[in-house]
Amino acid sequence: MELRWNCVESQVSLPETLIATRTNVETPCFGGLPDVTEHANRHPLTLREPSTNSESLDISTHQKAPLPSRSSSPTTPSAQQKEITKRKLNRKCGFCTCLAIFFLISCALIGILVIHFIWSENSGDRESQDQRLKIVRRLLRETPLIDGHNDLPWNIRRFAHNRLEYLNLSEGLDRTEPWNRSPWSQTDLPRMKRGLIGAQFWSAYVPCEAQGLDAVQLAVEQIDLIRRFSDSYRRHMVLVLSSTDISAVHRNGLIASLIGVEGGHALGSSLAVLRSMYTLGARYLTLTHTCDNRWAGSATSTDTGLGSFGRAIIKEMNRLGMMIDLSHSSDATAKDVLRETRAPVIFSHSAARSICNSTRNIGDDILRDVADNGGIVMVSFYSLHITCTRSSTIRDVITHINYIRSIAGVQHIGIGAGYDGIDSPPLGLEDTSKYPLLFNELLKDPNWTEEDISLLAGKNFLRVFKSVENVRDYWKRAGISPLETISPPKHSSCTYMPS
User: Fold this and answer.
1) Does residue 58 surpass a pLDDT of 50?
2) pLDDT tens figures, 406-425
3) Packing angle of the helix pair 215-232, 271-280 (nearest 10 deg)
4) What is the pLDDT of residue 101?
5) I need a labelling partner for 398 at 20 to 30 A (CA). Which of 3, 31, 302, 472 fits?
6) Does residue 300 contact residue 359 with C-beta atoms inside 8 Å?
7) CA distances from 228 to 142, 203, 383 (A)
8) Which ranges in 124-270 belong to alpha helices (H)?
9) Which residues pair with 205 in a beta bridge?
């Protein structure tokens, strides 16, 4: 405990010996106790000169005066007592301030760590290829990788005459004759699994040469083949008919198998055939191939658009919930369809014309129209579509993806490699096992987030498919009946009677 005394304003009698030796020197009060006040005039208090009045005190008596009682509380606290209280409060406030600062700093550090953790979880550590591929595998477990176009069924027809006993898709066809000698063969189940494919659209392709002849029969046979091999390999894949089926099959670790008819001439200009193909499982129709048909123009004739029967086809596809595929279509057909349709469209395997000036690719104006329509462009891997030459690389494909993204937006791009229908795939994307390498390369770019990769891989397509189904359901509730419009009759030796 500190003892503090205030010097009394009185004269003190000193012994003569002290008086004799004082020689007018001022002596600090009570042995020079330090001044602890914060006043500006910090001069030490001194004893007054000796006096003989009656109030004089003996110094020894004064020094032995009793300490003030703790119970005695002066009516007005002295300046020093106020200062002591103030200093105690200051010490407490200082401690509280330090504690608050420590708490705030701790919260800031914790916040930084949490943000870093969330960012790491969201963007992943992209420093090495192994780390990026780990992210890709995780993303493709959460979202199915959906490829919009594969021509394996036509190769089965060419090489095995649609007889499934002549091949085993669960083994590597790259080691089996004649597949291993064909530049058009890039697909089998082992490679698809390595490629982490979640859903594949198989093309029921019909050559233009069959138009007006047996095109409808060929289309039905190709649909039948897809249904049969999906059933034959049901331990690996399942034929699906809806957007929700894709997600359900993917959750079970299987490949969703879907059917797309390539070439509107496969309909034989019949809405009844269109409806029958939908019933058999076809979920998109490519309106044209490399030839015009009687109601739509192909990319080989850019001035021919959609005819009146073509508009009836579009309306009936909207009613059925069948996706409209504009790959191979002329610009005029694409623009007519985008004005006519009430549902989003797809380009199942196309690229950007501004990079490779091919009529098979899509111009910027139509890319913008597709975005306005809510549709999707699924990027082809065919070198002739990518570089307009017979050689390309994975970086060339990414150039097209980034360009289409810059024009249409990341919500309107997907993957439509076209394997087994191309004979010059890009270096780095040689077959169906290579998709993860594409996403690995995209993850090197900070402009591509994990969510962007998921959109490209499958979320965009699932959205389009679901929107097409929503239009179907709305029209069904509205009581829209099937159309029965006929194409103008074409008399030929192959026609029994006009409709």
Assistant:
1) no
2) 999 999 999 999 999 999 99
3) 10
4) 81
5) 302
6) yes
7) 28, 14, 31
8) 129-142, 152-160, 189-194, 215-232, 243-251
9) 262
Kindly give, in sequence order, each residue whose CB lies less than 8 Å from that of residue 355, ignoring residues fewer than 6 positions away: 361, 386, 399, 400, 403
Outline where 409-459 has alpha helix (H): 435-443, 450-454
**287 SS3 class:** coil
d(Cα 319, Cα 99) in Å, to the nearest integer?
Answer: 69
Residue 259 bridge partners (DSSP): 202, 282
- The answer to whether the beta carbons of residues 348 and 286 sit under 8 Å apart is yes
Q: Is the pLDDT of residue 125 over 70?
A: no
Which residues, in sequence order, are bridge partners of residue 415? 147, 379
Distance spanning both ends of the chain, measured CA to CA: 118
More confident residue, 288 or 88: 288
Give a three-class secondary structure readout of 35-102. Answer: CCCCCCCCCCCECCCCCCCCCCCEHHHHHCCCCCCCCCCCCCCCHHHHHHHHHHHHHHHHHHHHHHHH
pLDDT for position 110: 81
Name the more confident of 291 and 302: 291
Phi, psi at residue 279, to the nearest 5°? Answer: -60, -35
Give percent of the chain above pLDDT 90: 69
